[in-house]
Amino acid sequence: RALIGYYTPLPAPAVVDSEATRDALIRDPHIQKVLEQFANIELALLELDSLDPEHSSLLQAGYLTVEQLEELEQNGAVGDVCARGFDLYGNLLDIPLTRRVIGITAEELTVIPLKLAIAGGHAVILPIIGAARAELINMLVTDEEAATGVLQILKRMGMR
Q: What are the residues whose beta carbons fall under 8 Å from the beta carbon of 62, sequence distance 6 or more?
């Protein structure tokens, strides 16, 4: 209300069992109506997700198993935003999970002017770096532990 904004719930699970299920669901008129609104987003409040099993919201929500999280990590992923995986260098990963997501695409996310993530703790240090490099976030609210960790990693990588 303070920002004179609104939200529209997406009447679908975030991740489904197959690409075929995803394709069928995104053809539904109710889902299409919400997906079309992504082009008008000016401010996105985003969750920055870790692959750490103790902190992964995709695991906690039952969308992924511990084995699938480990597979993502073996494929180079360090985290995700809206179930869109990326590596430490900001490369978006074309992985099976991505093709089962119902929601905003990484391409749609990158053009949103204000993308605010709220994330803290040790588990999100690498995801913060990767998401910023992938241009999935451009504003961050964090804690001292994560901020210090990010700065240390960037310094080791020769970045400022």
A: none
| Backbone torsions φ then ψ of 44, nearest 5 degrees | -110, 130
Nearest alpha-carbon partner for 22 in 35, 38, 7: 35
Question: Binning pLDDT at 50, 70 and 90, where does residue 95 land?
Answer: confident
CA distance 147 to 150: 5
* Pairing assessment for the beta strands 43-50 and 79-81 based on DSSP bridges: antiparallel
pTM: 0.91
State the Cα–Cα distance between residues 30 and 120, nearest whole angstrom: 35
Cα separation, 112 vs 100, whole angstroms:
22
Query: Would you say 17 and 100 are in contact if contact means Cβ atoms under 8 Å apart?
Result: yes
Give the span between the Cα atoms of 128 and 46, in whole angstroms: 12
Q: For residues 126 and 77, what is the distance between their CA atoms, to the nearest angstrom?
A: 10
pLDDT band at 133 (very low <50, low <70, confident <90, very high): very high
> Stretch 143-159: mean pLDDT, rounded?
94
